Amino acid sequence: MSINQFHLAGVLEAPLISEKSTFVGEKCNTFVFKVKKAASKKDVKGAVELMFKVEVESVQVLNVKGKQKKFGRSIGRRSDWKKAYVKLKPGHDIEFSAA
């Protein structure tokens, strides 16, 4: 495994399975992933193509702001994170149960 492949293997943290992500996945052939905060669109595209052996059409990333929460008397804050919407080319699909 080359250094570039090793870097790309650590970009994806987890797939996000929610009501919205399954609706988008069925309608637009798009999958949602939680990715590293420093990841770029090119990194996400390369990581998905490397891990799942599919062709990616487009990638959209967005930063999700952490919420402010109360812990007893003190106020804390959850950390910010990054989400990526990955649209696959027609004819390609990701099976999470097989991967």
Automatic annotation (TrEMBL):
HAMAP family: Ribosomal_uL23_B (MF_01369_B). The gene is rplW. GO terms for cellular component: ribonucleoprotein complex; ribosome. The keyword rRNA processing does not apply. GO terms for molecular function: rRNA binding; structural constituent of ribosome. One of its GO terms (biological process) is translation. It comes from Crenothrix polyspora. This is Large ribosomal subunit protein uL23. One of the early assembly proteins it binds 23S rRNA. One of the proteins that surrounds the polypeptide exit tunnel on the outside of the ribosome. Forms the main docking site for trigger factor binding to the ribosome.
